[in-house]
Design goal:
There is one protein chain. By secondary structure, the protein is an all-beta fold. Helices cover 0% and strands 51% of the residues. The radius of gyration is 16 Å and the shape is elongated.
Length: 121
């Protein structure tokens, strides 16, 4: 999943966000790469994940990025657990928020794969 935003809440800033899912399930990791492709540093950037809570569980459904320096790529991992083996796959939404507005800076939809549950006998 790749998303790129070329607008900003401050002049001269833009972000690039990529999200990849790792794992076969029921435990997954969402790996985020965030790059400030603009010219100004961004500070105190919240990231929020929304998802169907009857299907997935996340120990940290939000995080705060202290700073995004231009040109550097920041890597983050988020644990996700599928808690309903009969539910199939769903989407997890990633919002990189604007601390000065209700409109997110950038969003991404992560299409989760089907979880491979092992049958305990």
């Amino acid at each position: 999943i790749n998303a790129e935003y070329m607008g900003s809440y401050t002049s001269g800033s833009s972000l690039r966000l990529t999200a990849h899912v790792q794992g076969l399930g029921p435990l997954f990791k969402i790996k985020l790469n965030i790059q400030n492709t603009g010219t100004k540093s961004l500070t105190a950037i919240p990231i929020v994940f929304t998802f169907n809570q009857s299907i997935y569980k996340m120990p940290r459904p939000s995080m705060l990025l202290p700073v995004l320096v231009p040109s550097l790529v920041y890597n983050y991992e988020v644990d996700v657990e599928c808690i309903d083996e009969s539910a199939g796959a769903d989407v997890i939404r990633v919002y990189v928020c604007n601390p000065q507005s209700a409109i997110p800076i950038i969003t991404a939809l992560v299409n989760m794969p089907l979880a491979d549950f092992l049958i305990n006998q």
